Every structure is written in structure tokens, then in C-alpha cells.
Amino acid sequence: MNRSWWIKNGRLIDPANKVDDQGDLYIVDGRICPPDSEVDRAQLEVIDAAGCLVTPGLIDMHVHLREPGQEYKEDIVSGARAAASGGFTAVACMPNTRPVNDSSAVCAMIRQQARGAAARVYPVAAISKGSRGEELAEFGELRDAGAVAVSDDGLPVHDSQLMRRAMEYASDFGLAVIAHCEDPALASGVMNEGEVATRLGLKGIPTAAESIMVYREIALAEFTGKRVHIAHVSTAMSVDLIRAAKARGVAVSAETAPHYFTLTDQAVDGYQTNAKMNPPLRSEADRQAVIQGLQDGTLDAIATDHAPHSSLEKETEFDAAAFGIIGLETALPLSLELVRQGVISESRLVELLAVNPARILGVEGGSLSPGAVADLTIIKPDDRFVYTAAAIVSKSHNTPFLDRTLEGRAQLTMVAGELKFSRQAR
Amino acid sequence: MNTGYFFPHRHILGIDHLSREDILYILDTAESFKEISARPIKKVPTLRGHTIINLFFEPSTRTRLSFEVAAKRMSADTFNISASTSSATKGETLIDTARNISAMHPDIIIIRHSFSGAPHMLARYVDAAVINAGDGAHEHPSQGLLDMMTVKEHKGRLHDLKVAIVGDILHSRVAHSAIQGFTRMGSSVQVYGPSTLIPKGLEQLGARVCTSLEEVVRDADIVMTLRIQKERQNDPLLPSFREYSRQFGVTKQLMGLAKPDALVMHPGPVNRGVELMPEVADSSQSVILNQVTNGVAVRMALLYLVMGNG
Ligand SMILES: [Zn+2]
Predict the structure, then answer these.
(1) Which of A137, A285, B125, B211 could serve as a FRET partner for A365 with CA atoms 20 to 30 Å apart?
(2) How far does the CA of residue A270 sit from the closest CA of chain B (Å)?
(3) Whole-number mean pLDDT of chain A?
(4) Rounded distance from Cα A418 to ligand 1 centre (Å)
(5) Could you tell me where the beta strands, DSSP code E, fall in B158-229?
(6) Domains parsed from chain B with CATH numbers
(7) What pTM, to 2 d.p., does this model score?
(8) Does residue A175 have a pLDDT over 90?
């Protein structure tokens, strides 16, 4: 398979090298070539990227691929295909599978399934055995089996001592600890607590449920001197807490998801189960604070929390519906909306979607540096399309953005110089 | 009745989608049906040949009976499906149940469900008209309407009244429907209860939250108390009934602060001596039994109107 390319006429966005310029990019044998190197151009296949952004491959550091155990919702191959069509060249998959990914066997199985898939798949292993929140999983063995981080995502670590030990022990193996911050007792509702929940008669989840746990993780990271990564930030108070912690030099990083900067709890109106997720959609003030956090550097990454569910879990009463929405195919256009609104630059967008996720997870990619592995995404920012059920690549269709007109999407993705997705070819 | 008005609703899912005009029309219709219940032969042929299914996923004696009496007085055929006998216990989803029932071509489905929004979902899957008989903590529209009918009978109007609601506002679909209804009709609603039972955002829904029993009851035209439950799903809302009755119970003495002709209301069943003292529940100000009587009339009106008779 060809792994040598001449990408012409694109706008190269490479914040790691402070590049935002029109230019050509040469890729030879799956690696990026220096612009002045002696390349035999005749040997290269040409890609015309006129009108497009050429960026390091986008990395989604928070997805649920449901394999093993719930392949009717998604599997590694289908999830990777959805990722590629959304512009992602790599994803990190959360361990809340069945069985939970708390063993080298599950890590190995995931990596096996991901061979030849349309995107790199990095396993995130469990913090605790079975994600039961009792005993630490074997981080060393999990790291050796390919895990890039640990998390009990979906089942917040209740025991503060266990969380402290996780941060300490994970540092011995260079693993990021990713914290799903929700106080379980406070977070027993089904949507954001506020006027909309009261009007709909639905049980609320207060913003404090998240902020309390965000502060706990910050306090533990600060005390131990270890690092922690806060998943899917949804509240203004969490943003404030993280901003203040960073100012004090605490090793905290954080992500948010496109739905938190795009929607509010008003989207639940009419008992829309595709607007039900954990943490829940919040108020307009929270949404604005999240946008501010993306702009000023408080939040490091945009991750989708891609959480596929079938109609069995979603076409039901709101209280009975599963939490979570798919996000791989909508993250890029929703994030580009922030660029169009002038909130962030294209370079900042690439930091949020590629550079920082690579840095936090400690994986390759995130730059177009000479010699770097050729994971890249070509994005047509003005490509308008209607996101219909028929066009969804993921196995599941649980999205509040169905039938919306979106703008900007990936035209092509490449992993180590191998073409993984091309919109023209489809 | 006003001419040129057509009742526009196929389903009755909540007071929130009823306009002022809709509410007055329903109450006028109910008023005209009320007389039927006073006749020696309490039956009219209006809904003869119509099939009505009472689909109750939550135990209810009063509301179900009231709907059934209403349906029978209009000569409809009624069938009761309650949670214990329904397929819900067999793991069948609400959608499956809805489709199954729908296949039998009922004209009206009356649903009570512990999940807010369940009637809305049902309405999307069946051809029948759907009437919400109480969904979670969301709404109980027929209760809200019978409350308004009772007030209108006694006060001659629904506007410029001061309505006090005391108790568990957080979980009360009755309170939510009353707040929507009375504010829409131009009255003011104020609420009070333990802070554990006052939900966020009530002000945006049009209710003023008071800080004492005295404040909420003072000069009120209507004092509505709600049934209290001590505990819900391990949520420690109240320490005891004993304390509730002492700190939040509506007493005769407290009623002295309300207008002299204030009405005492309660959706029933009353925890006597807890949220409402017996001497208040049984006083001449109490219209609790009128509420029950009007409940049948309002429900007859709703059955009549959703069948396209408006
Ligand atoms: Zn999570």
C-alpha cells in the first residue's frame, strides 16, 4: 500500500511548530519529510488540498467502543470507522466494557481487534478491579499490554483514598489518571437540576455533584504532586476550579465535549432521550464558561465521550433511557463552529483536538514535525451537510444533532501514511 | 359557550399546553356535565361504542375510579390495566405495551406512570387520544382542572386570586399543574415547604417561594396542602412526620391568617394530622369533597373533548 504522498495547496495548521501557512507537505514511507528535503516527487501520489486545512491527525481521548460485550451498540472496527469519517486518526477507548478492561487480556484483545482498523485505538484501562472502586488494577501490567491511561469512567471513584493511591501509583508507569467527576449520591438524577428539570418533573443532578469531585481530584493532585486529567467538564464552577489550580501549578489537565459547548439543558425539552448524558447538559452560563475555558487554555482538549446506545436503550421513557450520545462524527463541525464564531483560532482547535490529547496520553502524533509519523487529517471547513441517520457511520444513532445542518468535516485521514478515510472515495 | 372556538387538542398531556381559552372551555364543558351526576339515572349515551383503556402503571384508587365513573356515565366501554396485571412486570417496554393496546383500536388511553413524560411517549406510538392521569413529578392535568373548577365555583373567578400551596412541591405533579393553571388564569401562586422539597427554578415557572408558613398563608384566597411522603429512594427529605406536622402542618390557627372566606383544598388522600389538621380538613372552608365531585365532571369533559366533540 502506498504510504508516500504530496499534499498540495493546503493550509498547514501545526501549532506544535507554530505553523499556520499555505504550503505543501511531503510524506515518504509513512513519515513526514522536511520541506526542503530531496524528494523524488514523481514517486509521490498527489492529493489536492486546496481550500482545506491540513492538520495533525485528530485524537479523541474519550470514547466508548462497547467491545467486548455490547457489540450491538458499536465495536472496535465500526467505532474506528466512525472516528475516521469524523476526522480522527486515533481514539482512546474507556474500560467500561463487559468485561471491564482491567486486565492485560482485554487490552490485548482490543489491540488485536484494532489491527487494520480505520484509526488507532488506545485502550484506557480501569483504575480499580472491575471498576468496583475497591482495589487498584494492575497498572504496570496494563501499561505493558498497551493501556495509555487509567479511568473508572462512568463509575466515579467514590473512595478518596483509592483515588489518591491511583494518582500516585499511575505516575510510576507514566499513565494518566482520567477522572469522571460526579459525586454518586448527588448525581442520582437524570438531567441538570434547574428550571427545565422542575418544569419537566425530572430528577435533577446539581452542578455541585461535578464540582465537588473536580475539587477533590485537584486537592489530591496538589497534595501528592501527581497529575490528573478531568474528563468531560460541564460546569462553570469546574472551569473556575481548574483555572485556579493551574495558576497554582497543579498538574491538572481537562477536557470537555462538544455537546457541553453547543447545547444546554433546554435540549431535553420534550423528553429527548438523545439529550440525556452524564454529566448532563447544563445552563447557558455553564456553556459560556466552558467556551471561555477552551479559549483561555483552562481546558486542554475536546473529546467526544462517544457513547453509542441502540434504540432499545434510547427509545424509552426518559428516566429509563441510558446516558450518553455518539459524538465522533459531529465533533469536528461543532468545534469548527467555535472557529467560525471567532472564539478560537484554527491553531487552537488543533491544539484541543490533536496536540494536547497526544501530550496528555503520551502517544505519538499531534504534530507535522519532520520525521514525525504521518497521522493527519484534511478538513474542508466550509463543507455543509445534513447529518442524517442514513449517513451515520457509527452503529448507533443516538445523537441530538440528527438532521441538523452542520458545517466543516474531514475529507481524508491518514494513519502512518496509510489512507484510512477519503470522502471522495466513498 | 363561545362560538367559533374549536378545542384544539387531541391529547391532554399537561396544563402546560393548554391556553387560557382552552381551560375555560374545558371548565364550561365540565360545568354542563356536572348535572348528569345529580340525575337519578346518571348516564348519557354520548360516548356509546367508544373504548377507553385505563393504563395505570402506578397504584391509584381515586383517580382511576374517577376516570372510570366519568367514562361509564358517558356510556363508554372501559377496561382497566393496572401495573400488577399489566405486561410491565414481564419486562415488556412501554412502547410494546402501547403498540399492543393500539392494535385493539381503543379510542382513549388514560395513563398514569411514575416516569415523567411517559404519556408524551405513549402519544407518539398510539392512534388513540392520550390523557395523562399523572406522570412522575411532571403533571396531573385533570387534577389541576378540577382544582380550578372548584375554585371557580366558589369564587366566581379564576383571576386575581392568591393561591397558597404548602408541602412537597418537588415531587408533586399536582402542584406543578396547579402552578401552571392558576398563573395562566391570572392568579398568583405562592408556595412553601421544607427547603428539601422546594425545587429549583419555581420562580421561572411563575410561583413565588415563601420563607414561612405565615407568609404563604397570609391573605390567601386558597390554601392547598399536598400529601407528604417521608422518604423517596433513600433521599433523606424529612426526619419524621411528627416534626413535619409541628413545623409545616396547616392548623386552624394558621388559617386565621388567610382571608376569612379562604378555601382549603387537598388532592387527597389526606394524611390527617400531618400536612392538614382534621379540624381544618373538616371545616366549612374545606372543599375537598367538592374537588372529588368536580373531578368526575372534569374528566367527563376531557373524554368528550378529546373525542373531537369540542
Ligand atoms: Zn465519563
Answers:
(1) A137
(2) 8
(3) 96
(4) 31
(5) 162-166, 188-192, 207-209, 222-225
(6) 15-139+292-309 (3.40.50.1370), 141-287 (3.40.50.1370)
(7) 0.94
(8) yes
pLDDT digits (tens, 9 = 90+) for B113-137: 999 999 999 999 999 999 999 999 9
Q: Residues with Cβ < 8 Å from A116, sequence gap 6 or more?
A: none
Q: What angle do CA A82, A84, A87 make, to 5 degrees?
A: 115
Mean pLDDT of A347-356: 98
What percentage of chain A carries pLDDT values higher than 70?
A: 100
Q: Which domains does chain A have, with CATH numbers?
A: 57-361 (3.20.20.140)
Arithmetic mean of pLDDT, B63-91: 83
Which of B93, B115, B200 minimises the CB distance to A318? Answer: B115
The answer to whether A313 contacts chain B (CB < 8 Å) is no
Nearest residue on chain A to B202, judged by CA atoms? Answer: A195
User: Would you place residue A425 in the very low, low, confident or very high pLDDT band (cuts 50, 70, 90)?
Assistant: very low
Q: What is the spatial distance between Cα B204 and Cα B207, in angstroms, rounded to a whole number? A: 7
What's the CA gap between A32 and B35, in Å, rounded? 87
Supply φ then ψ for residue B300, to 5 degrees. Answer: -60, -45
Q: What is the pLDDT of residue A2?
A: 80
Residues 112-131 of chain A with CB under 8 A from chain B are none
pLDDT in tens, A43-59: 899 999 999 999 999 99
**Which residue is associated with the grid cell 422542575?**
A198
Q: Is B200 a catalytic residue?
A: no
Q: How far is CA B138 from the centre of its chain?
A: 11
Amino acid occupying residue A424: Q
Backbone angles phi, psi at B195, to 5 degrees: -60, -25
SS3 A381: strand
pLDDT digits (tens, 9 = 90+) for B170-179: 999 999 999 9
> Which residues of A fall within a CB distance of 8 Å from B117?
200-202, 271, 317-319
Residues in chain A with CB shorter than 8 Å from the CB of B200 are: 193-195, 197-198, 204
- CB distance A198–B205 less than 8 Å? yes
Which of A271, A284, A312 should we substitute to test contact with B (largest number of B Cβ atoms within 10 Å)? Answer: A271
The residue from B34, B73, B113, B140 that is catalytic is B140
Q: Are residues A195 and B135, on separate chains, in Cβ contact within 8 Å?
A: no
Set of cell numbers at residue A109: 484483545
